[in-house]
Amino acid sequence: MTTAPTHLLSVADLGAEGIDAVLKVTDNFVEVSARAIPKVPALRGRTVVSLFYEDSTRTRLSFETAARRLSADVMNFSVASSSVKKGECLRDTVETIDAMGVDALVVRHGSAGVPRQVAGWVGASVVNAGDGAHEHPTQALLDCYTIRQRRGSLEGLRIAIVGDVKHSRVARSGVLAFSALGAEVTLVAPPTLLPPSLAGWPATVSHDLDGVLAKADVVYLLRMQSERMTEALLPSLREYTAAYGLTRRRAALLPDDALVMHPGPLNRGVEIAAEVADLPGSVITAQVANGVAVRMAVLYLLLGGPG
Ligand code: NCD
């Protein structure tokens, strides 16, 4: 007997088949999202809690919008106004929430592995909404969906991921998902912004951004995650932009049909020139829109089944 998966913790757990299954269901929710009243009763009576220990705009709102479009009840846990401020530990907090009888916990935390740990403590389904520099599986899923929407398939596509790979959970989940679907991934970053080991990363590394861009189907920019940097890893942001930023000049090197992607939040003028983010090849807004439908698919697959 097969049992439905109860958590989404990492792309590594999904594999190509799991990614495909989510993307197929996403099609339905893209259609729902385009309706005049973008709402279905699929998760009526279910409760989804967002538990964010780190700042977020789009991921949190995207999950909450997704849950509401499925008619779930949504509870929003804000660390800043919670008993965490009174010293309550993570385990007590999540067990307290779980005891209220919730169905899913969407967890973001600054430390890698926290969502998996939480999954071991609670009866609810746990969705990883970003854990430290480890993974951000729903971001990778929405990115795969967006690329498929524009290019039909990821098979054989050349995808360049550029920037602060070292601190990026988006890069790690992206590399795993893109390569699982048949893309060739190249990481382009200064050596100080690459992880100490790339063992287990199905990707190659290049420092020749111009050369990579000329042959890229997709260029995926990463934000400089200064909040995770404990030491100076760059001479200056200006020098970083000169060597690795997607400037107007560099964007002109891209093939005409290349896609420009970014998970947000953008630092316009640092990793991406302000006007480049708004060029026709930029699918940054589509990524955000697809994010809601992908998260609806994830919540539906975890909670919507017969039990
Ligand atoms: C990213 C994150 O928080 O991991 N943003 C997001 O979820 N869309 C990337 C970032 O903060 O740079």
Descriptive terms for the model:
single chain, 307 residues, alpha/beta, Rossmann fold, 2 domains, 5-stranded parallel sheet, 4-stranded parallel sheet, 10 helices, 38% helix, globular, binds N-carbamoyl-L-aspartate
Mean pLDDT: 94
> Which runs of at least 5 residues are low in confidence (pLDDT < 50)?
none
Q: In order across it, which strands form the biggest sheet?
A: 7-6-5-8-9
Radius of gyration: 19 Å
Helix content: 25-40%
- Termini separation: 14 Å
The CATH architecture of the largest domain = 3-Layer(aba) Sandwich
Give the total of beta strands: 9
Number of folding domains?
2
| Secondary-structure element series | HEHEHEHEHEHEEHEHHEH
Q: CATH class of the largest domain, anyone?
A: Alpha Beta
What would you give as the CATH superfamily of the largest domain?
Answer: Aspartate/ornithine carbamoyltransferase
Bound molecules: N-carbamoyl-L-aspartate
